[in-house]
Specification:
Elements: E1 2-6, E2 9-13, E3 19-24, E4 30-37, H1 51-58, H2 68-76, E5 81-86, E6 91-98, H3 102-115, H4 120-138, H5 141-153, H6 167-172, H7 175-185, E7 191-197, H8 201-211, E8 233-237, E9 243-252, H9 259-270, H10 276-284, E10 290-297, E11 301-310, H11 315-330, H12 336-353, H13 357-371, H14 377-385, H15 389-399, E12 406-411, H16 415-420
Parallel strand pairs: 3-7, 8-12
Antiparallel strand pairs: 1-2, 2-3, 4-6, 4-7, 5-6, 9-11, 9-12, 10-11
Helix pairs in contact: 3-8, 9-12, 9-15, 10-11
């Protein structure tokens, strides 16, 4: 067992590989506790796509010790909250509650991880629920277009597969499929127990020794190298009134030294109503209600781009205006005042998010999952402050090359053919 202390945070790595992390905030009366597993849809194959998300659902369906109703009742009867989510790279099961109930929440989460049943009858019932969730995504153009974007950019790689999976897979998974995947990926070396709030680290270690007694083995997953597709144009048919668009490209991942520079570029271009693209497309030209940039980040790669919705008559003009703003940044048209505003916006969002214990818990977990250490808050702020005008312009020259971007159109009419005619 090896322990590390950083300010009000402590990390202990147990001999079996399991990691326990805590951030003690004595002036609050509550906590956020998460069991994080470093596995998600990018660890799947085409035949198992969707199973990570399905397992997340199944862990709430009952254990050897608790029914699904008992799992909910034990937390909600104490005024607490229990939930989970799955991403492409990890899965998190978490609870919120008053500090005196942290042990009771720990017991329930530990039971779910160790003793879930994956009963065939529950699998069939939950499959119908997840297919309804899939239909909700398909009915939401804003969600669907992002799923399609990554399926195009990362075609042939597991990172391009949707988190929720396919209807065919969801309907065919069996008890054996869940057990096999769980045993391969839910190992102690892949598990992080993370808490923030009015908690004591020694209590978490005591709870782990008392309630996490099952040997769940070691995870064996190995992620494949991502090879992005060449830039192209893609059309997705959807019977909708408004057309939706993404202009995007792959770029560096979460651990790269340039990520915060790209994050600043994203803020300058399209985050907030004072951003360049909002002002240009919506305020000056009135051709888009929704327009924003995004940076969807994974460990070694990200997708950077612009999302907007507009009419079929205006989409090419909108795209050209976006590329015009790209050229301005590449050519160094950036004042110190605008960069400083973007820095303050980024730092303000970051600091305000830490007023939530759930966000603080997530920050700790992400720091460990991606950097194998806890990054001090001061370090993250300093990295933003140290970025210069020259840094932003230099990174922009490589990032904002027009030819490197792909275009995805979600519409009732193939505007690529229509505009070329």
């Amino acid at each position: 067992m090896k322990s590390t202390v950083l300010d009000n945070c402590q990390i202990t790595k147990l001999n079996n590989g399991l990691t326990v992390v805590s951030e003690t905030i004595p002036y609050v009366q509550s906590f956020a506790l998460g069991f994080w597993v470093k596995t998600g849809s990018r660890d799947e194959t085409p035949a198992t796509n969707g199973i990570s998300h399905f397992i997340e659902h199944m862990l709430f369906k009952g254990t050897k010790n608790r029914s699904s109703k008992n799992i909910a009742d034990e937390i909600e009867s104490l005024g607490g909250y229990l939930n989970a989510f799955t991403t492409k790279e990890y899965t998190c099961y978490y609870g919120r509650g008053l500090s005196e109930n942290v042990e009771k929440t720990f017991v329930v989460l530990a039971d779910m991880i160790q003793n879930s049943l994956f009963k065939e009858s529950d699998i069939k019932n939950e499959a119908r629920v997840i297919i309804d969730e899939l239909k909700d995504i398909e009915d939401s153009p804003e969600e669907l277009i992002f799923d399609k974007l990554e399926s195009f950019l990362f075609e042939g790689n597991s990172l391009g597969m949707p988190i929720i999976g396919t209807k065919e897979n969801i309907e065919k998974f069996t008890h054996k499929d869940f057990v096999n995947y769980f045993n391969k990926h839910y190992g102690s070396n892949n598990l992080f127990i993370v808490a923030s709030g009015n908690v004591k680290h020694e209590d978490l270690l005591k709870f782990t020794a008392k309630y996490f007694t099952k040997d769940i083995g070691k995870a064996k997953n190995k992620r494949e190298e991502v090879k992005p597709a060449k830039s192209s144009e893609y059309f997705v048919y959807k019977e909708i009134q408004q057309s939706h668009f993404i202009i995007a490209k792959p770029t560096v991942g979460l651990t790269h030294k340039d990520r915060k520079k790209i994050n600043l570029i994203s803020h300058i271009l399209g985050e907030g109503s004072s951003s360049r693209l909002f002002q240009e497309l919506r305020e000056e030209n009135g051709i888009a209600y929704q327009v924003n940039t995004f940076l969807n980040s994974f460990e070694e790669i990200s997708t950077f781009g612009v999302y907007f919705s507009t009419t079929e008559e205006n989409w090419e003009k909108a795209r050209e205006l976006i590329f015009r703003e790209f050229e301005k940044l590449k050519n160094g048209e950036l004042k110190a005042e605008e960069l400083q505003r973007a820095k303050e916006y980024l730092k303000g969002n970051y600091l305000m998010s830490l007023e939530s214990l759930t966000n603080r818990m997530q920050r700790l977990a992400n720091s460990l999952i991606y950097f194998d250490r806890l990054k001090p808050l001061e370090e993250s702020i300093r990295e933003i402050d140290d970025i210069t005008l020259e840094d932003v312009v230099e990174v922009s020259k490589g990032l904002l090359e027009k030819e490197s971007f792909s275009t995805v159109i979600l519409s009732s009419k193939n505007l690529l053919i229509y505009s070329a005619a």
